[in-house]
Amino acid sequence: MRREKDFYFYKAKKEHYPARSVYKLAEAQERCRFLKPGQRVLDLGCHPGSWSLYAAGVVGAKGLVVGIDQHHGAELQQKSGAEIHRLCYDVFSPELVPLLRHRWPGFHVLLSDMAPATTGSQYADHQQSLALCRRALELAGQLLHENGTFYCKLFQGGDCPAFLAECKPLFTTVRVLKPRSSRQESREIFVLGLGYRRPKQQENKE
Ligand SMILES: C[S@@+](CC[C@H](N)C(=O)[O-])C[C@H]1O[C@@H](n2cnc3c(N)ncnc32)[C@H](O)[C@@H]1O
Questions:
Q1: Do 121 and 35 form a contact (C-beta atoms < 8 A)?
Q2: ipTM of the predicted structure?
């Protein structure tokens, strides 16, 4: 689908972000203030790097951003903010969690802007997006600190309520956001989980 260069495209260019998608995180942050100085942030599907750059600016020099994407990306140009580590992995790789756990003691915020390659079938795109969201939620269970935040893109479809029902017991608050910068015709929405609560069973196992 051909994309019009709109207000957010030019704003991103002016503000030196590689993609207009940055405002889908920035708007959520302006509304809910979940990114805080000093936090460690895991950014799934980070390429080309706008969310990582934005998060690095908010968490600042004492924080850290780890971006994961199946595509290699060019080094990000940063003037200040947290150090950004980019790792080239498929999020379904079994090596990912041991590697992250070895290098960092968990994360305060897990972001996922992961999107499947769209097929033209709304049903197939929804199911593939849902698989990525479920993997992000699974990784949250393994890597997110108690009381942490989850912010995840989902292509809408019939199984949205089921996914929200899976999120609800794991967070104090679950909200669905549709930022203004997300195109009206796009089926994407964003699920925000605040206050991660590790399930009791999992607590006992660890
Ligand atoms: C919309 S882009 C992310 C844009 C990014 N948030 C930014 O602002 O620059 C979606 C990304 O998800 C990545 N992705 C999709 N499936 C993935 C997977 N299984 N593992 C890792 N990355 C994946 C894609 O490679 C793509 O770069």
A1: no
A2: 0.99
How many percent of the chain have pLDDT more than 90? 86
How many other C-beta atoms are found inside a 10 Å radius of the C-beta of residue 80? 8
Which residue numbers belong to the known binding site for S-adenosyl-L-methionine?
Answer: 49, 51, 69, 90, 113
CB atoms within 10 A of CB 67: 25
**Which amino acid, 118?**
T
Residues with CB under 6 A from ligand 1: 18-19, 21-22, 45-51, 68-71, 90-92, 113-115, 132
Q: Tell me: domain 7-205, CATH 3.40.50.150, correct? A: yes
**Would you call 168 a catalytic residue per the annotation?**
no
Output the CA 55–ligand 1 centroid distance in Å. Answer: 16
CA 138, 143, 149, 155 dihedral sign is: negative
Q: What is the CA(203)–ligand 1 centre distance, in A? A: 30
